[in-house]
Design a protein that fits this description.
Two copies of one chain form a homodimer.
Chain A (H helix, E strand, L loop, with lengths): L14 H8 L3 H9 L6 H14 L5 H8 L4 E6 L5 H16 L3 E6 L4 H14 L3 E4 L7 H8 L4 E4 L9 E5 L1 H14 L5 E5 L5 H16 L7 E5 L5 H13 L8 E4 L2 H13 L9 E6 L2 H5 L5 E4 L2 H17 L7 E4 L2 E3 L2 H4 L3
Parallel strand pairs in A: 1-2, 1-3, 3-4, 4-5, 5-11, 6-7, 6-8, 8-9, 9-10
Antiparallel strand pairs in A: 10-12
Helix pairs in contact in A: 1-2, 1-3, 5-13, 8-9, 10-11
The first copy, chain A, binds a DNA duplex (30 and 30 nucleotides) through helix 2 and helix 4.
Chain lengths: 347, 347
DNA sequence: GACCTCCGATGAAACGATTTAGGCACGGAC
DNA sequence: GTCCGTGCCTAAATCGTTTCATCGGAGGTC
């Protein structure tokens, strides 16, 4: 009985094997792969046949070693569990696909260390470029990437200097829209439920809220700021409990939350504690994720063009990769308020 | 005035440059990188200094070409927008991180073509192994991967043969749990809102539902099956409209949905059309995603150990990669019903 | 028949890391 | 003084692909 040769690891066929099988030279196989028009039809078919027979799979490491470039981009997400970022990722993916590149998604999960590890690895992989929503936009590792030749585009964050392209949404405006909407509805005491101040978004949205409040001539102390540890559903619930604890005189009649996760948590806590939305508390969220509209009391929210955000970011990156005269650009999208039952229902 | 040398692309430093700068040979630099203990302290420090000065970044392509293996895994997700899969991904990531490997996430978005492109590319990259929730578990491309030496673990799906490891949850049991719960609550007419029958999960959960129904001795025609195009929030809403269209005599008093997205859509449609949950319609979902508990009427749902699913899958893959005596294994987790207000509230 | 052209195929030289077989210097033991 | 270990380092081969200068032969022209 014959013993299977090389039963250990079959180690896949190389161009050399293909060349031998097809009876041509190495260079010809490579031509079939990369410039099929330079090879005669009969030879090409013979080579393709050999590839199929041997189960040849091109070794991307060797290819990119030789050519000095890869066919991939990467997006380092801040939180893969937040639908906002997965929608952004989808926009990026569409652009990458259109350009014939593949996209790797990495999740930093809000942890600097994890982000750093991903970046180091991507740099070693020599990806064409990196899109990132950074834990900290001022992280010097980002500068180091640029210096060492890996283009970086910052997504949904901005940075003071301009050695990067970035794509973001005007969060100050978003904050204004939300609070103006509440003021128009007649609310005189409003809570701003934010995440930690370390997040630029949270600061900007709060700033927009304050601006709108001041312009309406309302007393600053009636815009109550609640800080949360993290912009999550659980923290939104906790914020709801803090609101209940306030005396009726000081209790806001409306809340603007820094994102939809917070808003959904707050919504749930409010309803399950027996109060009504928007009767006892009107709620505005931010991001307009799909679940916002699907909440049992559909959530008024500030919509960001998530997919466009991703697409535009990828386009900027591709331009930077392809065009030596590329100029860095800071794109700012305009958000839009989507009013739904959580602020519109009868009180 | 001096002209910046090589102003085009700086082309990063190689081990050769480091060796020249540090005044040692190439091999020594490699030793510093891979077996620092074999290098004297003074030499090592000199080399490390040179690396820092030159901004040396190891070229992973060259490394993996030479060593024949990479330091990465990949998870090809079916739908990155579904929190269920992002939670699974997190479990995988934890295991990968623990093993010192990096994880690439790819999103097939339910499209075979996209999935195929990702798989081909990953194979060319020579990733150590692939975890996948496939569009079609019987896709021959998966067999081809195995044949050509890339280990594959199937996640949240199963396959008849056993040339793969797989990790899944007992969906028949999950379906039973859901419907038994509704029967216990006294419902005599129940809808099963499923996705397309092409999805194994949808079939299995439906099968469990039918089993429970039959065992309770209830007439089969009172378990109404509604098929949806896709298991999404929008389709859940549409299903709600179809339910409303039924005559009061034929209209179910409860619905079991094949996943939480469907359930949330159905919940929203029901409430916004002026009916109550669970009064007019009790609802059970599946997956117990975070948003299920956060819905304004918290959703009863069948919980799957999502993160454990991912972790275990990654462990199986790592075992397959590392252990030549590896035996394929089909792990099946047990789901659990989490009862909440959407079935428990006063009618 | 000599010469030129053009197409297609060839083979060797890279790319940047790892690995392995050796080489050199220094010290200690006899 | 010779011999042998030991500790550190060097030099060269290698991984699989792409690229580029080159070569051979078929066909056309004078």
């Amino acid at each position: 009985m014959a013993i299977t040769p090389g039963a250990g690891t079959p180690r896949s066929a190389s161009v050399k094997d293909v060349a031998a099988t097809a009876g041509v030279s190495l260079g010809t196989v490579s031509n079939v792969l990369n410039r099929p028009d330079r090879v005669s039809r009969t030879t090409r078919e013979r080579v393709e046949r050999a590839m199929a027979d041997l189960g040849f799979v091109r070794n991307e490491s060797a290819r990119s070693l030789r050519t000095g470039s890869t066919q991939s981009l990467a997006y380092v997400m801040l939180d893969a569990g937040n639908p906002f970022f997965t929608d952004v990722a989808r926009g990026i993916e569409l652009a990458a696909e259109a350009a014939g590149l593949s996209l790797f998604l990495c999740n930093s999960d809000g942890r600097s260390a994890r982000e750093g590890a991903h970046l180091a690895h991507l740099q070693q992989q020599r990806v064409q470029g990196i899109l990132i929503t950074p834990v900290d936009p001022d992280d010097p590792q980002l500068d180091q990437l640029i210096e060492r030749g890996t283009p970086v585009v910052i997504v949904d964050r901005t940075r003071a200097g301009s050695s990067f392209c970035s794509v973001a949404v005007d969060d100050v405006l978003g904050g204004r829209l939300a609070v103006e909407h509440l003021i128009d509805a007649g609310h005189k005491r409003v809570a701003y439920v934010g995440g930690p101040e370390s997040i630029g978004q949270v600061r900007d949205r709060g700033e927009g809220a304050r601006q709108a409040w001041a312009e309406a001539g309302l007393p600053p102390e009636d815009l109550v700021v609640l800080s949360c540890e993290a912009p999550t559903v659980a923290c939104g619930r906790a914020a709801g409990e803090r609101l209940v604890g306030l005396s009726a005189r000081r209790r806001p009649t409306a809340a603007f939350c820094a994102n939809d996760l917070l808003a959904l948590g707050l919504l749930q806590q409010t309803i399950s504690s027996g109060r009504t939305v928007p009767g006892d508390l009107a709620i505005v969220g931010y991001d307009d994720i799909e679940f916002a509209a699907a909440a049992a009391v559909p959530l008024t929210s500030v919509r960001q063009p998530r997919q466009d955000l991703g697409r535009r970011a990828a386009e900027l990156l591709l331009d930077e990769v392809g065009d030596p005269t590329h100029q860095h650009e800071q794109v700012v999208f305009t958000p839009e308020l989507v009013a739904r039952a959580s602020t519109l229902g009868r009180p």
